[in-house]
Design a protein that fits this description.
Elements (H helix, E strand, L loop, with lengths): L1 H7 L9 H9 L5 H21 L25 H10 L5 H12 L3 H4 L7 E2 L2 E5 L6 E5 L2 H9 L19 H15 L8 H12 L4 H8 L3 H7 L1 H22 L1
Antiparallel strand pairs: 1-2, 2-3
Helix pairs in contact: 2-3, 5-7, 5-9, 9-10
Length: about 250
């Protein structure tokens, strides 16, 4: 919104044409994600202009987005998690954020909303913002250690630097990015920790419904998140069966 305020805050929306929308998109071609996201926002804004009677048509409707190759997200390798824990000892907010994400398998948006009162009977009672699903997730030892070392002066578990309110999404993301830069983990972001949770469950032999019981994902999303590790687990099982068969001949 600040971007639009800067480039067209004083412009009359009645005069905007399709070519202007395309030029605006092209001006951010070096930032494809921002270019496409700003196009979606502009489409909504201009549709509101139509609703208000300021325009008859929406010139942003039908304008295509810049084609991008979506990079598939992967779980953090265990060696990078070890490095992360070494750099962020117990008692740091960065460590607590990681243990909450990996330990519960929840989205960061749900994690920053977690309160101490959500801990019930040795687990987290979670209400997912995106799906509305109600979950209860037992607390792993690694997460319990991080919780024991955390400050409890706020109702929220992840707090801002002053400890007075919850930590913002932007604040968590930037703090974690600083650590990622330090340990050479820029390829793996804060959302990849949810992949770690799902993949660890599959490697432990959990079925899709057991994985979903923790992450709250649909069966299709469980398979999407665990596709690579699932192939590896099955390949190991297959080769073991192959070896056993040869030994029995």
């Amino acid at each position: 919104m600040r971007f639009f305020e800067e480039v067209m805050g004083d412009a009359n929306p009645i005069n905007m044409k399709r070519k202007d929308v395309i030029r605006l998109r092209a001006s951010n071609a070096n930032k494809p994600y921002f270019a496409n996201y700003s196009l979606r926002v502009l489409r909504v804004l201009l549709e509101h202009c139509v609703d208000l009677g300021w325009r008859e048509t929406n010139p942003a409707r039908g304008v295509s987005e810049i084609k991008t190759v979506k990079k598939s997200r992967k779980p953090w390798p265990q060696e990078l998690l070890v490095q992360y824990r070494a750099v962020c000892p117990l008692g740091t907010r960065e460590r607590l954020a990681m243990e909450l994400c990996v330990g519960t398998g929840q989205r960061i948006g749900d994690v920053i909303e977690m309160r101490w009162s959500d801990i019930q009977d040795g687990g987290f009672a979670v209400s997912q913002n995106k799906t509305g699903k109600q979950l209860w997730i037992p607390i792993l030892p690694e997460l319990q250690a991080a919780l024991d070392a955390a400050s409890k002066h706020s109702v929220f578990i992840l707090t801002n630097e002053q400890g007075t309110n919850r930590w913002s999404y932007r604040g968590v993301a930037q703090a974690v990015k600083n650590v990622r830069q330090q340990i050479g983990a820029l390829e793996f972001d804060i959302h990849s920790w949810r992949y770690n949770a799902a993949c660890e469950l599959v490697e432990a032999g959990c079925s899709d419904d057991l994985v979903a019981a923790v992450t709250g994902q649909s069966a299709a999303m469980v398979q999407h998140y665990t596709r690579q590790v699932r192939q590896r687990v099955r390949a190991i099982q297959a080769q073991q069966m192959r070896t056993e068969q040869k030994q029995n001949v």
